[in-house]
What we know:
Number of strands of chain A: 0
CATH topology of chain A: F1FO ATP Synthase
Number of strands of chain B: 12
Number of domains of chain A: 1
Number of helices of chain B: 18
Low-confidence stretches of chain A: none
Largest sheet of chain B: 6 strands, antiparallel
CATH architecture of chain A: Up-down Bundle
Shape of chain B: extended
Mean pLDDT of chain B: 87
Structural class of chain B: alpha+beta
Largest interface: A-B, 16 and 17 residues
Strand content of chain A: under 5%
Helix content of chain A: over 70%
Distance between the termini of chain A: 18 Å
Radius of gyration of chain B: 40 Å
Structural class of chain A: mainly alpha
Helix content of chain B: 55-70%
Mean pLDDT of chain A: 86
Strand content of chain B: 5-15%
Oligomer: heterodimer
CATH class of chain A: Mainly Alpha
Amino acid sequence: xxxxxxxxxxxxxxxxxxxxxxxxxxxxxxxxxxxxxxxxxxxxxxxxxxxxxxxxxxxxxxxxxxxxxxxxxxxx
Amino acid sequence: xxxxxxxxxxxxxxxxxxxxxxxxxxxxxxxxxxxxxxxxxxxxxxxxxxxxxxxxxxxxxxxxxxxxxxxxxxxxxxxxxxxxxxxxxxxxxxxxxxxxxxxxxxxxxxxxxxxxxxxxxxxxxxxxxxxxxxxxxxxxxxxxxxxxxxxxxxxxxxxxxxxxxxxxxxxxxxxxxxxxxxxxxxxxxxxxxxxxxxxxxxxxxxxxxxxxxxxxxxxxxxxxxxxxxxxxxxxxxxxxxxxxxxxxxxxxxxxxxxxxxxxxxxxxxxxxxxxxxxxxxxxxxxxxxxxxxxxxxxxxxxxxxxxxxxxxxxxxxxxxxxxxxxxxxxxxxxxxxxxxxxxxxxxxxxxxxxxxxxxxxxxxxxxxxxxxxxxxxxxxxxxxxxxxxxxxxxxxxxxxxxxxxxxxxxxxxxxxxxxxxxxxxxxxxxxxxxxxxxxxxxxxxxxxxxxxxxxxxxxxxxxxxxxxxxxxxxxxxxxxxxxxxxxxxxxxxxxxxxxxxxxxxxxxxxxxxxxxxxxxxxxxxxxxxxxxxxxxxxxxxxxxxxxxxxxxxxxxxxxxxxxxxxxxxxxxxxxxxxxxxxxxxxxxxxxxxxxxxxxxxxxxxxxxxxxxxxxxxx
Lengths: 76, 618
């Protein structure tokens, strides 16, 4: 199955868009998560706030995915 | 629905001699949320009732018995006939009996573990025909017992020893591929022998548990075995006896624990009151609908000798909140409790969550097959774990929404056609990605603006129209500005961009006035918040993709036929099970997040205390 080089590059590009943004989200989330767990251990009521702060960077991945889809759309 | 129960603050004051009566009545009514009095110059906090010490003493005993007997919390129908007197009496009796049994059990088990050790030593000595009483201390004899490393060492040893002396006796036996030996030798040669033994790799063993035993090892072993069976019997009997006690007194103990906890709660209640030498004062909150009933009951029981004052909640009051939702919306209070209770004057968003949460969940999971599986799963779990009923009700509703969206997407376990029959659909998730993206963003815009409107109403109620306009209204102006800018720059309609910029700048000024510099900084958030709803499409897409991959893989195996069909079925089962779990987690959390982060941040303040009436169980 021969794939044109340009298609391959587009696939790599969209893969990078999701992968790198997921890495970024992970890095951002790890410290927030650790702190949030600490806070929850001290005080149960912090669960809601802890969850919120922890998942805030998650949006990055969504943006990455959207960009990936847009890139794939370019390829047609 | 959108507001918590209306509360009235209440003050009850009266002479000390009526205190106990009032406490009892309040405990029975279960409607007063007591506000703790803090010690001040005007009044100290009250003294606990006299019975407190006695009660705590017994409750400690009862609880230790519950732990010792391994009794689990459960519903029971035991009835106490004589209250505290009966508890005290029975507890004492039971305590003695249980302690006696445990003491006996301890002794038996000690003996058993001692026998275990002796048993081990006897097994080693079994094949050596030396009477046990010979392993004792001598004046003229020394003896060594232990393992030798090699097989031939025993002959070497014998040879070397005979070079020193003739006065020795050597016994040996093979145990688990090791050579065990016992050597008795003239005490004069002890040092020499010890050196020789060290050279050839000798590991000594000390027999500490056979002191006092006589005769040969085998007979002793049998004796100990016999003794052990007896001890085991005894231990089982005692355990059974304890088990019997646990069964017999389970109802009593649990009921007693319950009863004592309540009595103790009553006895310690004055610690929350304000008190002077002769009078007490209780502050608290009562739901308005129960107010009149409570006042008349208290007046009746005290023969109008207490003074009760009540008034509506004031603005600066820290009112405890009891959420007021009915029917299907009720279980969604779980999410609000998890997050933070809304302030008394705030809008309670439970009903909004009831409207949108299942939709978001279903939008993401959206598969007829998955919906049915998760519905069945949560129905089963709800029956199994009644404690989590609220959460499971939410999930059941969400599963139903998933089934509904499954119809819209025309999906059944990731399949869009069964055989050659294409399932009808309104929109296809795997092919209509762009459409789904626009729908997601549209949902986002609606939901975020919904949040802003609620925020507007909240501020309008609390601070008036001006604040509401600047703090929340400015966002609407901003959105209109962005809309005009987009329309004009994308040449969709012909208006000059200036109008858009005008709206934009006005909104900036309003925001700055309303929320200060913080508002300006937060401007991009409205965009990211809206785009965040793209996850509705994204989570669903990933779920569909995995399902399709699983189906394709399985189909490949099915085509090969024969045994491969079994592998195909396995892949289907494991793959879809995994995907359902992933999908449930994802949909649950992301739907929750969209509410907590994107929706609540537009209006929710929260932080109210939970209404927990005196006397009511958790």
